[in-house]
Amino acid sequence: MFIRNCWYVAAWSHELPAGGIIARSIINEPLAIFRTEDGEIVVMADRCCHRAAPLSMGKLEGNEIRCAYHGFKFDHAGACTEIPGQDNVPAKARVATYPAIERHSWIWVWMGAAEKADPDLIPAACGFDDPRWNLRSGQMDYAANYLLINDNLTDFSHLSYVHVNSFGATEAWARSRPKITRLPRGIRVQRWLKSDDSNLKGVRSGGEELWSSYDFLVPGILLMRSASYDTGTSAALNGGEPGPDVPCHNENFTSQAVTALTDSTSRYFFSWGPRAGEGTDELAEILKGIAIMAFTEDRIIIEAQQRTLDQCQNFDMVLSSADVGPVQFRSVIEQLIKAEGGTARLRL
Amino acid sequence: MFIRNCWYVAAWSHELPAGGIIARSIINEPLAIFRTEDGEIVVMADRCCHRAAPLSMGKLEGNEIRCAYHGFKFDHAGACTEIPGQDNVPAKARVATYPAIERHSWIWVWMGAAEKADPDLIPAACGFDDPRWNLRSGQMDYAANYLLINDNLTDFSHLSYVHVNSFGATEAWARSRPKITRLPRGIRVQRWLKSDDSNLKGVRSGGEELWSSYDFLVPGILLMRSASYDTGTSAALNGGEPGPDVPCHNENFTSQAVTALTDSTSRYFFSWGPRAGEGTDELAEILKGIAIMAFTEDRIIIEAQQRTLDQCQNFDMVLSSADVGPVQFRSVIEQLIKAEGGTARLRL
Amino acid sequence: MFIRNCWYVAAWSHELPAGGIIARSIINEPLAIFRTEDGEIVVMADRCCHRAAPLSMGKLEGNEIRCAYHGFKFDHAGACTEIPGQDNVPAKARVATYPAIERHSWIWVWMGAAEKADPDLIPAACGFDDPRWNLRSGQMDYAANYLLINDNLTDFSHLSYVHVNSFGATEAWARSRPKITRLPRGIRVQRWLKSDDSNLKGVRSGGEELWSSYDFLVPGILLMRSASYDTGTSAALNGGEPGPDVPCHNENFTSQAVTALTDSTSRYFFSWGPRAGEGTDELAEILKGIAIMAFTEDRIIIEAQQRTLDQCQNFDMVLSSADVGPVQFRSVIEQLIKAEGGTARLRL
C-alpha cells in the first residue's frame, strides 16, 4: 500500500558517479539508475524487456544502456534501439522509465503517472551544498515496513524510552504533547521543552528552552529545525514559533527520508548538522554520532515490532493521545492512495 | 493443533533470576516471562497493546513491566497502569496473562482458560531439589513439530537403530513390545528386557534384567524410572512391576518435556540421574553425556523426517505393531483438543 | 512443470562407490540412490513408508536398505522385507522405485511410467571411457528453474555479452543465426563462423572457420562437437556440415546435462575436452578452465534473471529472432508433458 504519485528518495547523489549504475527497488519495483553523459538522472525498470535480466548488470554506451545477457540496447526514454542480429526493433520493445530529479543531494524518483510529476512537490530538504548548515550524513536499512518507521518519526514520545542513552531524553518528551498541524501532504509537529527536560547529550547546556519544529511529508520525509533559547522565550512568545530575529543557540537541522524498498524492507537516509560557521565541525560530528546511535535504537525496537506483528495477524491496537501524529500521517497517505484510485486501509 | 488447557514447560527455574525477563513462544504465542518482587512467576503476551512492541524488551519496575517503546506500564495481571502523558487509561488497555506455576525446577504455563488451570494437572516430574535423585540436565531445540518428537518418545523401538552408539542398544528394543496402559492424560509404557539385550553402555553389567517404566503425559512430558534386577526377577514377578522392596541396581530417573514453541519448532528439556548417594556424581555425568549424545541422534533423524514430510503433503503412512504408543498418545491429544471445542486430525 | 517420461541425469557414476548412498531430488522428488552388490543402480523414493524418514540416512545390507529410524528393510524393488518385531509385512509396505541406467559416466533415472522406460531414449553423451575424447568434467548448482538454463543453452547469441572474458566471444555470435532443426525430442543447432569472429581464447588461431553443431535433447542434454577448418571450407560445403573426411583442427566435444532438482533449483553437469591423443592434456585443462569460468558467468546472469522474474509475476517478454531455439525447445517440452496427460504453459 504505497502512494505512487510521489517523489521517493532513491539514493544520495554521491552514490552515483558518472558511468555508474545503481540497482535499487522502490515500492517493490526494481530500478536501474544511471546518468546520461550530461549528468541527467535516468531511472528505468531493472528488467530487460527481452528476458528480464537486470539492466543494472549491463553497461552504459553513451546515453544508452546495453543488457548484459543478449545485448538489447535502450535509450534514456526506455526505447530499445538495437536487437543484435535483427534489423527491426518492435515498438513494444521498451522498458518503463520514471521521472527523476537530483536535488538537495538526493536523487528523487516519481513512481506514479509521469505527467503528474511536479518538481514543486519535492520537499525542501537541505543538501550538502546548503550554505546554512554544516551537515553529516548516514543511512540504515530496516527489515520493516515503512509505515512503522513513519509512525516512529511522527511521535517523539518514544524518545523518553528508546533514546535515553543516545539523546539523553527525559520523560518530558513522553509527557508533553506537541502542536500538530495538518499540511497538504503531511503534518507539522512543533513544541517547546524546558532544556532540563530535553537534554541533548553533549550538545546543550542547562537553563534554556528547546524549540523543535518539523514537517513530515509523504512518503516519509522529515525536515526539522531545533534550537535552544533563553529561559522565558517560550512564555514571551506565548508558546508560539520563534522568528529568525530571536537569538538562539545550538541551532541545527536534519533532513531524513524513509523509502519503502519493498513491503518488508526500507531504507532510511539522513543528514544532520549545526548551523554552518567556524568551529562547528566538532559539533557536526557529535550530532552524527548521536544520530547513528539513536537511529540504531529505533531500528532494534521497530524490527522487533515488525516481527511481533508478523506473528499476530489481527492485532487490535490501543491508541494513546500521543498517537495524533501517526494517525494523521497515515490518514494523509491513505487519502492520497485513494485519490490515485488505489485502495488502502492503513488506519491504526 | 495444540491442546490449550494444559501445563507447558516454558523454562527451567534457573533461567529466570530476579529482575530477568524471558522471551519465549509457546504454541505460536510469544510470551514475556518474569517474576514479581515476591518471586511469583508472571507470564503475559509479549506484545504491548499499544503498538505490539515486545514487552520482553522492556524493563521491570517493581511488580510491573514498562514497554521499551512508548513507556506503557502493565501490572502482573496485564492491566495497563500508566500511559505516559495521559491521565486516563482505557479499560481495554491490557495484555493477556497466563497462569504459571514453578514446580520441579520448571516454569509451567497454562495456555488455556485460566479458570481451568488446575495445579494438580502438573505432572510429577523430579526437580533438582528432589532428594531421591542426583540429576543433571540439558535442553535442545528442534526444527520440527512437537508431534514427531512425541512419536519418538512413545515408541522405543527406534533405540535399536538410532541409539546403537549412545545407548549401545541391541535389536531387543525393536523386537520386544512393551505393555502400554492408557492414562487419563497420557499413556504408561513398561517392559522387562534381558540385560544382554538392553545394554546401557558404561552403566550396566551383564547377567541382569532391565525394568523400565514411564508415563508420557500431555503435552509431551516423559517421566521414567529404570533399574536393573537380578536374573529371574521378571519371571518371579510374572512380568509385573517390581515393588520398592525388590533389590535393584543402577536405578535412575529422567524427566523430559517437549514444548511446542511454534508449529515448526520445539524445545526439549531433560534431566537425568541415578539414585542419590555417595559416589554417584560420576554416574550422573555419564548418564548426562549419554543423554546428550542420544538426543542429538534423535534430533538428526526427526528433523530429517520433518523435512521429508514438508516436501510430501499427502504421505500415506504404513504403521507397525510398535506404533501403539504413538497412535494412543496422538489420540489422547486429539480428544483433549476436541473436548476444548477445537478441531484436530492428528492420527497417524 | 516437468516431463516425467524422460531420462534425467542424477549423478556422475563416480559419485556412487559400492556401499554408498546418494540423496538427491529430481523434479521435486527426493531420491535415495545406491548400488546392488552386482553394481546395478537402485533408485527409490527417499522416504520410508513407515514414518517418512529418509532412506538415504539408512544402511545397506546386501542388496537391501534398512531405514535408520525403526529398521524397516526394503529390497531393490522397493518391497518391505522386514518390520522388526512383527511377523507379517503388509503388502502396502513399499516405497516407489525408478528405472535407472548407468551410461556415458552418468546415472540416468526415468521419472515416469516404468513400462515406458526405453534405454534407447538415453542421449548419446560421451563418457570418460570414450576413446575419442580427452575429457574433463565439473558441475554447478543453480538457484534457478531449469527452463532458464535451457533457454541459455539453446540460444548462443548471449556468448557475445556474457562470455567476452571466458570464451573471448565477439559480436559475431549475436549477429549470426544458426540453422535450427527440430528433432523428435529436441533441436539441432548448427553454424559456421569466421574464426576471427569466434575466437575461443587460448585455443584457436586466426584465419580459420569454426563449425559448431549440437543437439539439445529433453530434459536438457547438450551434446556438441566443435572444430576449426581452413578458410573457405564453409563456402566449399555451401554452408553445410563438414564430414569426417574434411581436415580439421582443435576438434572438441562437450556433454552437458541440466537436471531440475526442484522448481527453483537445478544441477548442471558437464564434461568437455579435445580429441584424444598425445599431448592433449594441456588443452583439456584449458577447456575445463574456460568452461568453469563461462558457466559461472551464465549462472550469475541466470540467477539474477530468476530473481527478477520472481518479483514480477506477469512479465511480458519481447522475443528476438535469436529466440528460435528457446521457443522450439520449450515447445518440445510442452508437447511431451501434454502427451503424458499433464498440463503445461511454458511458452516464452
Outline:
With about 350 residues, chain A is an alpha+beta fold. Chain A contains six helices and 18 strands.
SSE blueprint and pairings:
The structure is a homotrimer of 348-residue chains.
Chain A: E1 7-12, E2 21-26, E3 29-35, E4 41-45, E5 59-61, E6 64-66, E7 73-74, E8 80-82, E9 97-98, E10 100-103, E11 106-110, E12 136-142, H1 146-153, H2 159-162, H3 172-175, E13 179-183, E14 186-194, E15 208-217, E16 221-230, H4 233-236, E17 249-260, E18 266-274, H5 281-311, H6 324-339
Antiparallel strand pairs in A: 1-11, 2-3, 3-4, 4-9, 5-6, 6-7, 7-8, 10-11, 12-18, 13-14, 14-15, 15-16, 16-17, 17-18
Helix pairs in contact in A: 1-6
Write up what this structure looks like.
The structure is a homotrimer of 348-residue chains. Chain A is of the alpha+beta class and 348 residues long. Chain A folds into two domains: 7-121, Rieske Iron-sulfur Protein; 136-339, Alpha-Beta Complex (Naphthalene 1,2-dioxygenase Alpha Subunit, Chain A, domain 1), CATH 3.90.380.10. Helices cover 19% and strands 31% of the residues of chain A. Chain A contains six helices and 18 strands. Chain A has helices at 146-153, 159-162, 172-175, 233-236, 281-311, 324-339, and strands at residues 7-12, 21-26, 29-35, 41-45, 59-61, 64-66, 73-74, 80-82, 97-98, 100-103, 106-110, 136-142, 179-183, 186-194, 208-217, 221-230, 249-260, 266-274. Chain A has a seven-stranded antiparallel sheet with strand order 12-18-17-16-15-14-13, with helices on one face. A four-stranded antiparallel sheet of chain A has the order 2-3-4-9, with no helix packed on it. A four-stranded antiparallel sheet of chain A has the order 5-6-7-8, with no helix packed on it. In chain A, a hairpin with a 5-residue loop joins strand 17 and strand 18. The longest helix of chain A has 31 residues, at 281-311. The radius of gyration of chain A is 22 Å and the shape is globular. Chains in contact: A-B, A-C, B-C. The interface between A and B is medium-sized, with 28 and 27 residues.
